[in-house]
Automatic annotation (TrEMBL):
CDD domains: DNA_BRE_C. It comes from the Bacteria. Signal peptide: none annotated. Residues 187-404 form the Tyr recombinase domain. It comes from Duganella sacchari. One of its GO terms (molecular function) is DNA binding. Gene3D superfamilies: Intergrase catalytic core (1.10.443.10). GO terms for biological process: DNA integration; DNA recombination. This is Site-specific recombinase XerD. Belongs to the 'phage' integrase family. Coiled coil: none annotated. Keywords: DNA integration, DNA recombination, DNA-binding. Pfam families: Phage_integrase.
Length: 481
């Protein structure tokens, strides 16, 4: 019988023995978060647990989903299943058995309904690298009398080959690779989110299906997630970690604060992202109305919802995970009838492209260049460094491909810059008026007279901004009498 249940789970607030003091009792150490790892039969897999415990001091570990440590556990699950099903101990793996694991076990996978394997070659390569790292650790800690993996001259049980690889600084370094790892896939480029798909997603997010307080909350949550994806260009995991205590007054601050992923630190650093007033207003309203209503109802039903995180599950009020957020986004894509490629990260690509385009436009105003090749690399890095401070990229050079994307964006939209700004004005005002419309049913928060007055004032302000855009004032001295 094939066991496909998950072999690991996150455990918080653990007390483990640290060392033995001969004069007193065993000294313990408190660990905030670790991963328990089991064999498919449910018994503890001690070698992998020890490896993950040591790895937890090197990678990011999060209490609600395990962070980067969860990826290591997921990769090692494949090796644990293979060894269990074939009655092989980790330290007894050799060239033949590991080749069988790499080629047949990892290659034998389900095909999705779209005709693609559930894991790409790049994912399988990452699994193999993680397994090799675990075996290297095993031979230096628990089985020091064996050479389980290594280069040919060491006569290892599993032979690796040496390869030269260039680092980011173009320096060469020698690495060890498994010779039977699958060939890397050529990644399909993900461009910015097209406006047509973006509009369809918003139509679905705004579609009224408010029958219960949970459905009201889910609709408001989807609106906020789309709004913040557009306004900040953040990663899904960063939205999942968004905390109320780190965003106490968005309107007053004129910004949101998010934890930055992929920095390989024990604690994800906090970054400030300026956003428009309309985004701040709708976010505060979501926190004070729909989210507050959900928490009150869940507490009434006997649940203990989480009070810290901005986005919660509707059934128990727990912090929503990035995978759950992605699944909900996929449901929106299907409901919208979108057949083209659409994922949350494309909003990030859209945001970065527009940010680079705005800085590039300022650069072009004082430099006479006709192609991106004429822009000095130092000027490109200078532009991208300013963008990276907002997007959370640790290396601005990784954004270099966006120079060409931004150039194309400017080329396509330069003749209609005014129209693009007009659309932006309409979107901002529409978001604010939607918020007022929702408040119409909540007389405790705002009277209907005040709602009408606010709507009229917003429309008048919008009219003034549009007239200024269409017919800008002439420069020069005022000659009117």
């Amino acid at each position: 019988m094939k066991n496909n249940h998950q072999l690991f789970r996150v455990i918080n607030d653990v007390e483990l023995p640290s060392h033995l003091n001969p004069h007193t009792k065993t000294i313990t150490k408190d660990i905030k978060t670790l991963l328990a790892f089991l064999w498919p039969d449910g018994s503890p897999c001690v070698p992998i647990e020890l490896f993950l415990l040591e790895k937890s001091y090197e990678v990011t570990v999060r209490s609600y989903d395990g962070g980067s440590l969860k990826v290591w556990a997921s990769h090692l699950s494949h090796l644990a299943r293979y060894c269990f099903n074939n009655s092989i101990q980790f330290q007894d793996l050799d060239d033949n058995s590991f080749k069988n694991f790499a080629i047949y076990h990892l290659g034998n996978q389900e095909i999705s309904k779209f005709g693609f394997p559930s894991r790409s070659n790049n994912t399988n390569r990452a699994v193999i690298r993680s397994c090799i790292s675990f075996l290297q650790w095993l031979q230096t800690t628990l089985f020091i009398d064996r050479v389980i993996v290594g280069s040919r001259e060491l006569s290892p049980q599993i032979r690796l080959i040496k390869k030269e690889k260039r680092g980011r600084g173009l320096e060469k370094k020698t690495i060890l690779e498994y010779p039977y790892a699958p060939s890397p896939d050529t990644p399909e480029p993900k461009g910015p989110m097209p406006g047509t798909i973006r509009n369809k997603l918003w139509d679905i997010a705004l579609e009224s299906r408010n029958h219960t307080f949970r459905e009201c909350y889910l609709q408001a949550r989807r609106e906020q997630i789309l709004s913040l994806l557009e306004a900040t260009g953040c990663r899904p995991g960063e939205l999942a970690m968004m905390a109320i205590d780190e965003n106490p007054q968005p309107v007053k601050m004129g910004a949101v604060f998010l934890r930055t992923e992929k920095r390989r630190r024990k604690i994800d650093p906090l970054r400030r992202i300026p956003v428009s007033l309309e985004v701040c207003i709708t976010l505060e309203r979501y926190l004070m109305v729909e989210r507050a209503d959900l928490i009150a109802e869940l507490k009434f039903d006997g649940h203990t919802p989480n009070d810290r995180y901005v986005f919660l599950t509707a059934d128990k009020g727990l912090p929503i995970s990035p995978s759950a957020m992605n699944k909900d986004f996929t449901r929106m894509v299907k409901r919208a009838g979108i057949t083209q490629r659409a994922c949350m990260s494309m909003f990030r690509h859209r945001f970065i492209t527009i940010q680079v385009a705005l800085h590039l436009q300022d650069y072009l105003a004082s430099h006479n260049v006709t192609t991106t090749n004429q822009i000095l690399i130092l000027d490109k890095i200078s532009i991208l460094t300013r963008v990276a401070a907002i997007t959370g990229h640790s290396n601005p050079e990784s954004l270099l491909p966006y120079i060409d994307l931004a150039w194309e964006y400017l080329g396509a939209f330069r003749p209609i810059d005014g129209a693009r700004e007009l659309v932006s004005l309409l979107n901002e005002s529409a978001g604010y008026i939607r918020t007022l419309g929702k408040a119409a049913g909540k007389t405790a928060h705002m009277t209907k007279t005040a709602i009408v007055e606010s709507t009229v004032n917003e429309l008048r302000a919008l009219e003034r901004r549009i007239r200024k855009l269409i017919d800008p004032p002439k420069c020069g001295p005022d000659t009117s009498t």
